[in-house]
Structure formats: structure tokens, C-alpha cells
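tool_call: predict_structure(chain=1)
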Amino acid sequence: MRSSLDKDTITSVNLYFQDESRFGLITKQARVITAKGIKPIGRYKHSYLYKWLWGSFSPITGESFCMTTDGVCKEFFIKYLQDFSKHKPKELKILVVDNAAFHSIKEVVLPENIVLLNIPPYCPELNPAEKIWQWMKKNIAIKIYDTLDDLERKIEQLIEKLEGEIVKSITAYQFYLKVYYSIFKV
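tool_result:
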């Protein structure tokens, strides 16, 4: 922890896993069930318009925080961290991130209530947030969205569905929970 943190301002500690994913108007393909020998027929839209969804998900409490942007860059990451720090401001957030270049925090002042940890390079399987994206993309597969606004509305609906128990069921990797509870003895 940082020495500048005031013990009276922090009331809880939580573990989050952060990632970002691109959602676009190109139709996401998925498996479907058909009769034997019958090829499934479906509509397909090919478009290069997309939005990025940034998210942090806690396997401890089921809490989540999301933000949509038009791209990914260091400035968006800094904005994301600033907004995330205001979400439950008295909570110390241990935020696990991957090693994307724009996650570099050199010359960046982190909010007081956020501590960043990196997973090893090239190990997306260690980031449970990846499983949240799979869940969301499964729920938008094989559907045609005419505009980015339509797609964003669907993403917002999915975010609203992301209740605590769903987040915990997707992100609660036992080895992370054991470490967290052994340190914080909750």
C-alpha cells in the first residue's frame, strides 16, 4: 500500500480484474442446432464500426464497473481509472490488469484508492474478466444490430444483468479467492 493512504478513508479492500474488449456491428458467429444434414441459414452483417467496453469485475463481491469508449489508449485508461476510483471511493481497489502497452503507468499518478497488479505476459487465461466478455458476446451472437446505438443499448442491458452472483460465478477462480482470503482473513 502507499504511505499517503489515510486509514480512516479506506473502509474496505476489494480485488478486481480489469480488461477491455471490442464489440462491433459485424455479426458474431455461433453454433446453432439444426437437423442432421441441414446447413443453418442466418443473416450476416459485415461492418467495421465498433465500440470498446472497459470493465472491472470482482470475484469477491460480484461488483462490476464498466465504461464504453471509441478506442483504446493510455488517455482512456487514465480516464477509466479516475472514474473507477470514484466508484465506492472508500474502497481500496486491488486491480489486476494485463500487460497491454496502454496499461503502462509510467509518469501517471494513480488515484489513491487503486493499486495495480499485472498478470504475467501472454496469459489471458489468468484474467477472469476474459470470461465476462465470452458471456456477453455469447448473448449478442447471431443478432444483427443496425447501428452502434442499438448495439450499445444491448450492451447496457447485459451490464444491468451482470448482478453480483453472475459476476462471482464467472470470475471466482479458486486460487485467487484462497490468496485473497488468506491475506485479508474475511
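agent: The first strand starts at residue 12 and ends at 24. Proceeding to next step.
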